[in-house]
Amino acid sequence: MEKKVEVQILRQPFTFIGEDEERIRKVAMFVDERISRVIRDYGIVNTFNAVIMAMMELTDEYLQIREHAERFEGRTLKLLKKVEEL
């Protein structure tokens, strides 16, 4: 059953609706920590700019992981073909 989950990101209240309350809280905490780190590390004052910088970092990480997974999948398929040939 879906429920309302109240969280805070950058001390601002947000309400999300979902079935996995623990997951929503975990994601919100991750987002809050990432944006806070960007603000601290880069000295960014504007919240919008901090969110954009955090999104750039996260997207870069995501793309690197996706590319790695695609390469891994390709190698795995090649190995499976070799095993099938044997």
Describe this structure as you would to a colleague:
71% of the residues lie in helices and 16% in strands. It is flat. The chain has helices at residues 21-42, 47-85, and strands at 3-9, 12-18. It has one domain (3-85). α1 (21-42) packs across α2 (47-85). It contains 2 helices and 2 strands; from the N terminus they run ββαα. The model has no long low-confidence stretch (mean pLDDT 95). The termini are far apart. It has 86 residues and is α+β, with helices and mostly antiparallel strands. It has a two-stranded antiparallel ribbon.
Short structural description:
The protein is of the alpha+beta class. Helix content is 71%, strand content 16%. Helix 1 crosses helix 2.
What is the secondary structure topology, with strand pairs?
Layout: E1 3-9, E2 12-18, H1 21-42, H2 47-85
Helix pairs in contact: 1-2
* Measured distance between first and last alpha carbons: 49 Å
Number of helices: 2
Number of strands: 2
Biggest β-sheet strands, sense, barrel: 2 strands, antiparallel
Quickly count the domains: 1
If you compute it from the alpha carbons, what radius of gyration comes out, rounded to the nearest whole angstrom?
A: 19 Å
Along the chain, the helix and strand elements come as: EEHH
Helix percentage range: over 70%
Q: Which segments are poorly predicted (pLDDT under 50) over 5 or more consecutive residues? A: none
The share of residues in extended strands comes to: 15-25%
* Strand-pairing-aware structural class: alpha+beta
